[in-house]
Amino acid sequence: MKIVVLGDKDTTLGFRLAGVHEAYSFEDTTHEVERVRNKIMELIEREDVGVILITERLAQRVEIPDVTFPIILQIPDKYGSLYGEEQLREIVRRAIGVEIKR
Fold this sequence. Notes:
The structure is a single chain. The protein has 102 residues and is an alpha/beta fold. It has helices at residues 9-17, 30-45, 56-61, 85-96, and strands at residues 2-7, 22-25, 49-55, 71-75.
């Protein structure tokens, strides 16, 4: 199963360097938001995609479909999380059952 990243140019570049299978970068424009929606729908229909990572800022601009597979996760971008550290800890705790502490 492939991991695919959707986000800004810098975030996707970092994931490409880390070896992610596919990464798509988008600008913060109205036209690009439509491209993101189309790409998400395309990725959901593919059987080889297991995880879609999308930056929080980009996810705010598009409606994320409620699907069980592939797994769609929101990630912070180069500017950090929109939700704050405490909320991210809670999301991780609920998702994997482990509390992260500094």
